[in-house]
What does this fold into?
Amino acid sequence: MRLTQLTSHALRHLRQHGLRATVNYAVTRLASARRDRLDARFDKKFGVCTSGDVELHQLGATGVVERDGYFYQPSPVAKVRAILRQVVLDLEPSTLVDFGSGKGRVLLLASEYPFRQVIGVEFSKELHDIAERNIAAYDPPRRQCDSVQSICADARDFAIPDGPIALYFYTPFTGAVMDHVLKNIVASLKQTPRPAVIAYYGADLDVVSKIEQLGWMKRRLKLPFDRTRPRTDQKMGLVFRYPIRERSPDRQSSVATRTGTLTDTVDTVQGQSGVTDPR
Ligand SMILES: C[S@@+](CC[C@H](N)C(=O)[O-])C[C@H]1O[C@@H](n2cnc3c(N)ncnc32)[C@H](O)[C@@H]1O
It folds into this structure.
């Protein structure tokens, strides 16, 4: 954007939203431009296009999808790798689902790990088409999963896949849409109990609280420090394991957990504060 364009954009924003909102907006956009420059290296190296924020209204979102959805912003490459490494160690071979997969960065990176399949769900046809082109172009040196696809659909209509599942959320939506998707997940696991984890990246405490209310075992993930954000504005990485229970073969009346011991994994990071970016 040229300086004159930038100035007129800033003045328009100032008139419409006031000084405080404009300063916050400017700070967020500058930080995101810096992240884009860093992550553009990934795009350039692999001949793909995953960087660049896109507002929901530019994608034609309406109704509850617009009300509860978050704009497109890709997860940072280093964070995704750190999360996937820890999730794959937890649970394999599984299907990874990225809810609100956008241009597909997480799908590309996930193909470097031993998932059975990788599926992205994105409501925007425009972003889904870009993701499909990216999937076709991506040729990493260490590919471990060949089944990678983007599905163009509202996440509420997506049928949870069979088998062990790792479900990734980079704060794609909140409110009624998040409630609906969590309800689908719980119904699917109730019908067919199986290993499952929810991996969350972001800073939306409402979304975190909705996932916490499922009562799954929570663990804080170790993530590299994000140098494009202040210390008080770091996003969290959390993993929630479904506490699948089954009858033990020798003691028919007892139950055993298949995904690890409760005491190992329960964490106490609930209600983190000091986070200024609501996502
Ligand atoms: C913060 S971006 C995350 C992008 C990607 N998961 C990543 O981590 O790189 C959120 C994405 O969710 C999508 N989204 C929002 N509401 C949705 C819905 N109801 N169904 C499917 N996708 C949705 C947006 O279009 C956007 O691409």
Observations:
- Residues 59, 65, 69-70, 72-75, 98, 100-102, 105-106, 121-124, 127, 154-155, 170-173, 177 surround S-adenosylmethionine (CB under 6 Å).
- Residues 19-46 form the longest helix (28 residues).
- The mean pLDDT is 84.
- Strands lie at 95-99, 117-122, 148-152, 165-170, 196-202, 217-220, 236-241, 245-247, 255-257.
